[in-house]
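pipeline stage [seq->struct] | target=Acyl-CoA thioesterase | organism=Psychrobacter proteolyticus | residues=183
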Amino acid sequence: MYPFIRYASTIAHAALKAKKGDTLTFKDTSEIQFRCRLSDIDNFLEMNNGRVFTLYDLGRMDFAVRTGLGKQLLKKRWGLVIAGSTIQYRKRIRAFQKVTLKTKIVGIDARWLYIEQSMWVKGQPCSSGLLRTGVTKGGRVIDTAQVLAALGQSDWDLPPTGYVAEWIKSDADRPWPPVDTAD
């Protein structure tokens, strides 16, 4: 089940932080902390891999609210979309461990914001995800220049480089729709 209460609580905490002046720009890294709950674990008593992606939503919401993007989403009736993702898992997260979730933008092109998210336990990285995200209006992705302008960050430029650019290139080579390998 989707963690609606945690989601709402994350938004409320982010709004309180922003109200107290603890805001972010698109150049900053958001950090939130939580505990791995029983509802997050699988039969091996560790955080379920699918739950990791779900909890990454919390980090993106904290980032959106504290950067002012959340206000713009409401004001302009914009939405958010994930158009692609890749993840690596390196260390198990066990029940009740304290997790730090970090969210930052690692690239922007004309259409997409590339976000890196990671979960850490006791200063050790456990998972890292790279997501292609967009802001939508009427079900269509809008130009990132429009988003940056609404946030007063029109002058900010962060072209995808390194592994982000390599992922974009390799993902473009991926067939869509998927090739049916059944005989």
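stage status: PASS
auto-comment: Strands lie at 30-35, 79-89, 98-108, 113-121, 124-137, 140-141. The longest strand covers residues 124-137.
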